[in-house]
Each structure stands twice: as structure tokens, then as C-alpha cells.
Design goal:
alpha/beta; six-stranded mixed β-sheet; homodimer
């Protein structure tokens, strides 16, 4: 037998540490079996219900109410426990106010003018106001709080960008600035790997792996999970990439995110391609069809991203090869790729490999509708054609047998001033044309010599194929084509010749100074983050923050109204 | 100056080789500048237009009409060329009929009763009928033709399955049976890698890579691109997997496809997990978050699939490790995974890694809506929970700081008879709980010892973290948990303990005999495929096929009507 008593207090603010400690304090009292102390949101009431701690009174609570439930052996014990609530709350408060602490951000800045960083972990509905104030005071913001609206995020980040400041977050769990972890962060060796991450434990897992593998971290910049959305457009990520590219301690950059918006991903990679350092990219949930494209290295999971970060700094053997038969003999004059493929799967994999690094890209066999080529007979932007598609094969031999359509199209693309590179596949073997090079090589020679368009050929076949692969390759190369036997090499050429990089800066660059001087920070919210900063040897000041009007919603509305009228 | 003349012939059938040769013949005549010979489909008329070969007459043609256009120096040359059409067509016909060839499939079977295979490459609208006849004659079908309806494909494959026969295709470009390439196929060494592919040039590229790497191919089975759709449900793929699993020559199986339906993918992998051999899986365009799960190896591109095929046969070093602290100390009694994670990204990557290998799988942070857990407070099937989601953190500390919710949930899952394995993440470092093991270990011990549920912990941290990672790991292990420092190892355990394999057979198994005896085949359609078979030393007979009623649609309809009335 047990009894359950509850109490609901409306309109008062308690931070989550206070709630946790009150709950633990109650649970330890004599005769108490279990206790629940939560703000009365719908989700929390469901959790109480699930824990067998619901009462009639608690069921009526609203989101702003503090709900206290005690399950005890008998009524006396329950009543006694609830009678202790105030003294338990008081004990907690006096423990916190041990030293002199400012009561406002403004006061904290006066107390520690060198602090360039403000850590904010107050409840979401107050967080944007605190962040706004920090930016006004010309401080970088680490915004741990969640439940900040998207609109507020966009507004804060625009303001920050204009001022050359960073807003990491909202909902940013982690960062490492000049060796000091902010929020949740693993202690790791200093080193030459810099991270920008729209993913908290993703950043932690990668930094921990890099450390375990013997590497180290220069800076790790969190952005919050929504930074790569269409609304935010990667503002913080772009600032971070610029910063790491300029940072002399950083040799390799790692960019990690849960699935970004397709547009933002393309934009980011275009910027990343323009950086002077190798960039390891892990876009979770996106297929990795090529491992490397120019300075970009694509990872397929967190551990792999850490592995790549440690090898990406070393130039690939293929990068060291002297320019020769492998380098295109002419320089492109147009900007766009035109791939005229006979193999549907090869065209598909080419599109998979290039869709994030060449933009805009279209195909008659697209991966998503926005990539669909309006008229398959006319190329547009970067175009990847599957000439084995039904449209091209009605009453006609497959292009692996009959080169006629491809030859016409080759000439058409060569005539297009927008064409910068033409890629073909040539698939040898049984059933295929007995000598494709004999028909394609003369046209390729014409395209390369007369129109000055580089041509690459992906040659699929074996030394046992009836066409003699060596001879086919030689003939195509003599005509001026670059011949590849692996798709990833063709991708590499396309990227090297055609990838256009976007400038990284979209506002005044964030100064490197706060990343190289000893960290000093102001903490508003969870005291444990302050303790962690001090424990790491950083200078820090904790603000004795209380919400305006003690968190009373009605009073807050009234204050806001008065302020607006001033 | 040039002139353009055209001629339209209605209602007659010509195969695509004839059309190509007529076009070439015309283009070589004196005074002819260009020629176009096509069936008058909308797509082909557009192509004529694009090539500058359109005439008023040709613009009026319909899909069943043969359109002949000649561009010449003058009217005389054009007229003369068109006057040659009939003799050019005749020349072609007499060249083809060199030897005695049967005029029907039935006749071919009588001529070569040992032929177990029928290759069909007639136009799509006739192809299903020919395939149906081949199945009735108890022959395997290689169906190169495209433009066969989905409904016909389903019907043909159901019929074939009941008879223990394969229908590779429609739109199947390639296969290798007992060393002989069907359709388009590269010549490769015999070896121990067997393929099942819903992708033509994908299969070719992988077999060619395997050959170039020194390996060889046992059998390569094409299925047609739609086999893994919801409609067809992978009938041919499943037959192929069963066949390769039973085939004594095959040591490693490669399964490759353009993106399959999610349901079919899950079904297939469940079957693949039950096979006795390693299976390399390349589902194009799907993210690869783990490289290995049980006997499955996931590839990220075609070349990688070939690489994996050659190493997948060798047991991994971790597979050789003796069971010890790494093996779970209790055997699961329930069937389902319950992952209670504090790190959103870690939960996300776990779901990415498991979504295709454990089914059904749900989450409060799903990758797609069909995975959404209806009520986050109650697990269902395999469940991956992100306890850092908003629902769980309103007015509450993050689960990386406060273990209370996780502990309650741990007990809840332990009480659920459906629970087979519980996975937790424990993230160490700054900001996180100072000693998570002290709170979690006692509950884990209770779950492992009293409820006999295995518990795995993904431990993220470094040797410099304030919590002392060694001690944390030791404490968790003493409590009975298996501790992993990499997510892929946790995935591996979940798969080993919980993955349920489905039986592979869905009809009488396809006999291995036709795959081990010298290939003999009947060819209906493109003569070049017959020539290729003979060139490879296979026995073959070519059918002098003509469509019913000479391809005249009205006559065909009349014949069908008469037949139905019989």
C-alpha cells in the first residue's frame, strides 16, 4: 500500500537543476517511495502518468505550473515530505550563491571585460533575449538552449554576421575553442583538425575518435542542428569554414551535419571547394558514391570521418602523378559537363557522385524531380544523359550497339559554347559494338582538335573482351580523349575542370583573435557549465540569472508592453 | 543548298538492325548528305527534328509507321535514294537467311531440345507472348526487351516461380551463365563471386572490376530494373540468391540494385542474412552507415562492391576473437532492440545502420515517417529512442547530465518480454554527468542478472576526460554490460543477437543443373546475340522470328479475337 500526494505551484520559475535536486531531496525523505518534480507540460504529465506518479491535481496543471508529486508509505510521510519543499528549495539557493555573482549580463561584462564568449543555457523562451543582449555587447554566443524559434535563430544569426560574431546554436551542445570545451565536450589533444558541426554528439564522437587515433583538434565549432536548413542557409557553418581556413593551426577541416537541405548542401560544398585545405564532409544519411572530389573527402560514418581527417592531410598518390596522358589535352572554355552515357547504372552513379559538387545538374534519369532535364534533346547546365532510356531506344538499337545517336549528340554538345567537358562511357564485351573506338575516335578528334572541348571516356571492359581493350583505349587516347577505367577518376576530372567555388565570406570575417587567446567566458544558465569552464582553467563568470518578472507570464507581457510604449 | 525527301510506310514490322542498316545504306548512296530511318514515335520524330531531318509528311507519321528521310544535294539524288529502299531491305534479308533457321520457338525447341535458355530481344509489345511460350516449354527466359508492362512482368515471374524457372528481365541487359555471357557481358575469368543484379551496366562494371583485380565470376544473374519494386517483390532476385547460396562454385554473393523499395530491401536483407555465404550489398543511392552487419557487407559504389567481394570471403579478425568480455553474458529472450540514447546524432547513425537489417524499426527521431514511434513513452518492435529530444527535456536536464529518465526507461524495457537487447550510449567529457556509471551500473546489473536481458553500452570519451574512461568502462562491464567504443560494433552485436532471417525459397528451387552444364540457348530477336553465343562456343539456334500478322496491328487484333473464340 502506498499513497500519492501532490502540489501544484503556478507561475514561478525554477531552473532544471533545482527541479532535479528537489526531486532527489524529496525521494530521500523517510517513508517516501518515489517523487516527481516537473513543469506541467503535456509531455511531462504523460511521463508522470507512465511512471505511476499522476494525481487528479497534477493532471490539471499547465505548462507554467510546477508539479510536485510524492509517493509515500502513508499519508503522514507524504504530507511531511511536501512540507519540506520550501526548505529544500531554500537550501539549494543558498548553496548556489556562494560567491559574488553579477545578476545581469551587462554586470558580468563590466566584471570581466575580456570575456569574449557568452554561454547561454536558460530556458528557450528567454534565451533569444539573452543572446540578443550578448550580441549588442559585441560577444560571441554559445547558445545551448533549445526551444528557440527558427525565426529568432535567423534574426540572431543575421545580426551576428553583420557584426563579425558567431552564434553557435540554438540547441548547440558542444564546441571546443582554443582547447577549452564549451557545454558538452570531450577533452582532447590540441592538433590540426578543425571541425564545423551541425550535430552535437557527432562532433563529440569525431573529436574523441581523432584523439584516440593519436590526432588532435584545433577548433571545433558547433552550429546548432538547423543551421543547414533552407531558412538559416548555413550562416554559422560558412563563418566557421572561413575561420578554419584562415586559422594557421588547422590543416584539415571536417564538416558534419545531419541531412542538410539540398540547396544549402550544394552551396556549402561549392564554398568548401574554394578553401585552401582538405575538407572531410559527412552529411549523415546521404549516399557516398565517390570518396574524393578535389579537396573534398566524403565520409560514410562518424568513425570514418575521423579516419579521413587524419589521412586527408596527406596528398593522394594520384595527385603526385605528373600531368601526361591522364591530363586533358585542352582547357575547357565552357562551364558545364555534358555526359553522354549508354549505361544507365553508370549514368546513375555519375549523378550520385556529382550531384553535390556540380551545380546546377540535370538528367533525363534524375535522382530527384528537381534534377529532371526539361527536354532530353537539349542539354542545360551540367547534364548527365542516359541514352539507353526508352525515349532514345524505341525501334532503335541500344547505344552500346549503335553509336549513331551518340555521335550526333557529341557534335551537338561540341557546338554548344556552354560545354566545358564531354564524358562518354564505352562498354565493351559480348553483345556490344565490335569496335566502338573506330566510330567514336574520329568524332572525338574533331571535338578535341577543332572545337577545343576536352573529352573523357569511362572504359568498362576486360583484357579478355573481344574488342581488345588496349587497342580501344589507345585509339581513344590518340583521338585526344582521356581514358578512365574507374568512374571515380572521371568524377575527379569533372570536378577539377568544372567545379566552381563560391566565395566563403558573406559578412565581415570573424576575427581569429578570440580563438587564439586564453578563453574567458560569461555563463548564463546551467551552473555546471561554469564549473566546467573553471575546471578547465578558463576564466569565467557566472550570472545569477532570473527571468524577467520571476518568470510570471502575465507580468512579463505587461513589462514588454510598457517597454514598447517607452 | 540541299533538299529533303521522305517516305512513310504504314503497318509493317522491321527490326532495329534492319532500320540501322537501311539508314546506313541510304547515307552511303551518291549525293546523299544524311538519312534518317525510324519508327514514327513521338520521341523519334523529335529526334528527326533535332537532326534537321524533319519533313511535313514525316511530321504526320504515327508510331506504327516506318519513316524514311533523305537529305541530298538535289532532288534527283534524293529520289534515286528513296528508289533504292526496297532493294536495300531485300539485300539485308537475304544476308540473314544464310542457314536453316526455325521460324518459331516451338520449332527451335524441337531442333535443339537440350537448350534450357531462351533469349528474347523482340520489340516489347511482342516480348511477353514469346516469354510466356518459353515458360510453357519449360525454358528459362533472358528477356532483353524493354517496354514490357509491369503487369506482364509480374504475371510472367509468378508463372516462372511456380515452375522453378527464372525470368531475367524484362529490360535485362546482361547475365553470365556458366561462363557464357548473355546479352551484353564482359568476358571474365571463372571464379567464386556470384552476382544478382537489378542493374545492367552495374553488373558489367562489377564483374569487370573483379576480373581486373584477379578474381572471377561463378554466375551473374540479371533481374531487370523493376524486380525490386513493390509490385514484383524481388521474385527473380530471391530465386537468384537461393541459387547462388546452393551453388558450390560460389563463395561470395554480390547483390546490386538501383534504389529498391524500402519494404523489398528489408525483406531481401532479411533473406540475405539467412544465407550461408557472405553477401556484398550495393543499393545505389542508399547511405552506408555500417560496413558490415553479420554476413552482410555494404558497398558505397561499384568499384567498392568489387573490392569487398574479394575480401568478404575472408573472415574478419574480430570474428576470430574468442568469446569473452566482448560477448554478451546472457542470451536474449525477447526479439527486439531497445536503444535508449542521449546523443541525437548517435541515435541517428544507429538508425541509419540498422534500418535495413532489423525490421520493423521505430524511433521518436525517424529517418522517414513510416518509422515514427506512435507513442515515445512505449517501445514497439525494434525501437531507437533519442532521449535528448524536446519531448523529454522540457524543464528537465539533458539525459547526458541527468540519468533519471533513462533509468526509469531501462526498467520499463527490462520488464517488457519483447525486449531482446538494450543499448545505451554513455557520453563522457566536460558538461556531462561526473560519474554516469555510478548511477547506471546498478540498474544494468539488475537488468542483466534479474531480468536476463543483455545490455550494451556505446561509450564515447577519451582518456583525458574528467570521468576516467577506464573506470567507467570497468564499472559498466562488471555490471554485465558489453562496452563498445565504436557504433559499428554495437550494430554488429544487435544484428548478431536479433536479426531474424527469412527463408529464401518462395517456390520450387531453381535447379542448379542448367548452371553447370554447357550452355545451349535459343535466340529470338537480335541476331548479334546469337552470333555472340556462338562466338563464345555455346550451342545456339536463332529463330527467324516475325511478328504475328507481319506486325499489322489490325490483323493482330483480328487474330487474337479469333483465337479467343476458339
Amino acid at each position: 500500500m502506498s499513497v500519492r500526494h501532490s502540489e501544484v505551484r503556478s507561475g514561478a520559475y525554477y531552473d532544471s537543476v533545482v527541479l532535479m535536486q528537489l526531486q532527489r531531496g524529496l525521494a530521500e525523505l523517510p517513508g517516501v517511495l518515489d517523487a516527481g518534480v516537473v513543469m506541467g507540460t503535456a509531455a511531462n504529465r504523460e511521463l508522470l502518468e507512465e511512471s505511476g506518479l499522476m494525481t487528479e491535481e497534477a493532471a490539471q496543471a499547465s505548462a507554467d505550473d510546477l508539479v510536485i508529486v510524492v509517493q509515500a508509505q502513508d499519508d503522514d510521510a507524504a504530507r511531511a515530505a511536501l512540507g519540506q519543499v520550501d526548505s529544500l528549495l531554500k537550501r539549494r539557493r543558498s548553496a548556489a550563491a556562494q560567491s559574488f555573482q553579477p545578476r545581469s549580463l551587462d554586470g558580468a561584462v563590466k566584471q570581466m571585460p575580456d570575456a569574449r564568449w557568452v554561454l547561454i543555457s536558460v530556458p528557450g523562451r528567454y534565451a533569444a533575449d539573452v543572446a540578443r543582449e550578448a550580441l549588442t555587447l559585441q560577444r560571441h554566443v554559445f547558445l545551448y538552449s533549445d526551444n528557440v524559434s527558427l525565426q529568432e535563430e535567423v534574426e540572431l544569426k543575421h545580426t551576428a554576421r553583420e557584426k563579425g560574431l558567431l552564434v553557435m546554436g540554438p540547441d548547440c551542445g558542444t564546441a571546443i575553442v582554443n582547447g577549452v570545451g564549451l557545454g558538452f565536450a570531450n577533452r582532447v589533444r590540441r592538433g590540426d583538425v578543425g571541425l564545423v558541426a551541425a550535430s552535437g554528439t557527432g562532433l563529440q564522437a569525431i573529436t574523441a575518435h581523432v584523439h584516440q587515433l593519436g590526432g588532435g583538434i584545433s577548433q571545433a565549432i558547433g552550429t546548432g542542428g538547423r543551421d543547414l536548413s533552407d531558412d538559416v542557409q548555413g550562416i554559422t557553418t560558412l563563418q566557421g569554414l572561413s575561420l578554419l581556413d584562415r586559422d594557421p593551426e588547422t590543416e584539415v577541416i571536417v564538416l558534419v551535419s545531419k541531412p542538410p537541405s539540398a540547396d544549402v548542401a550544394a552551396r556549402l560544398l561549392s564554398v568548401a571547394q574554394g578553401l585552401s585545405k582538405p575538407v572531410v564532409v559527412y552529411f549523415m544519411g546521404q549516399p557516398v558514391a565517390v570518396r574524393q572530389a578535389g579537396n573534398l573527402h566524403f565520409a560514410f560514418n562518424l568513425a570514418d570521418a575521423a579516419d579521413l581527417a587524419l589521412v586527408a592531410g596527406f596528398p593522394d598518390i594520384t595527385d603526385l602523378a605528373p600531368p601526361g596522358s591522364d591530363a586533358p589535352q585542352v582547357q575547357p572554355q565552357g562551364a558545364y559537363l555534358r555526359a553522354l552515357f549508354s549505361g544507365g547504372t553508370l549514368a546513375y552513379e555519375l549523378l550520385l557522385g556529382l550531384q553535390n559538387v556540380l551545380s546546377p545538374i540535370y538528367s533525363n534519369a534524375p535522382l530527384r524531380e528537381s534534377q529532371r532535364l526539361e527536354n532530353a534533346l537539349r542539354s542545360h547546365g551540367h547534364t548527365i544523359l542516359d541514352l539507353g532510356e526508352d525515349q532514345f531506344t524505341q525501334g532503335r538499337l541500344h547505344p552500346m550497339m549503335d553509336n549513331e545517336l551518340r555521335i550526333r549528340r557529341l557534335r551537338q554538345e561540341a557546338d554548344d559554347p556552354e560545354t566545358g567537358l564531354i564524358l562518354l562511357d564505352v562498354v565493351l564485351g559480348e553483345g556490344a559494338h565490335p569496335d566502338p573506338a573506330s566510330e567514336l575516335a574520329p568524332v572525338i578528334a574533331e571535338v578535341v582538335e577543332q572545337r577545343q572541348k576536352p573529352v573523357g571516356v569511362l572504359l568498362v571492359g576486360t583484357d579478355e573482351d573481344p574488342q581488345d581493350i588496349e587497342q580501344q583505349a589507345a585509339r581513344l587516347e590518340e583521338a585526344g580523349a582521356t581514358v578512365y577505367q574507374e568512374l571515380s577518376l572521371a568524377v575527379e576530372e569533372a570536378v577539377n575542370l568544372l567545379a566552381s567555388s563560391s566565395p566563403v565570406e558573406t559578412g565581415p570575417p570573424v576575427s581569429l583573435e578570440p580563438f587564439s587567446e586564453p578563453l574567458a567566458a560569461i555563463n548564463v544558465g546551467l551552473e555546471s557549465f561554469y564549473n566546467s569552464l573553471r575546471g578547465q582553467g578558463a576564466e569565467a563568470v557566472h550570472v545569477q540569472w532570473r527571468p524577467p518578472a520571476g518568470g510570471n507570464e502575465k507580468m512579463m507581457a505587461l513589462l514588454a508592453k510598457l517597454k514598447a510604449q517607452q
